[in-house]
Design goal:
65 residues; mainly alpha; 2 helices; flat; ubiquinone; NADH:ubiquinone oxidoreductase subunit H
Length: 65
């Protein structure tokens, strides 16, 4: 039981940041070809949300919060 939990945590720690990075790259590619649009903005926002929930936190400029 503990091994299944550990495997799940390790996979989450690896796959979530890779998925966020892939979504960001896809968003950049779409913006390069078609310009900024709703789909690319949603991809980028989704990647940012996933990254802050599971991965690195965003740095704040003045350290508030």
């Amino acid at each position: 039981m503990i091994w299944t939990f550990a495997r799940r945590v390790i996979l989450t720690a690896i796959l979530v940041p890779l998925g966020a990075a892939g979504a960001r790259r896809l968003s950049a590619a779409v913006e390069r070809r078609r310009g900024p649009n709703r789909a690319s903005r949603l991809l980028r926002q989704g990647a940012d949300t996933v990254q802050t929930l599971f991965g690195r936190k965003k740095r704040r400029r003045f350290g508030f919060r």
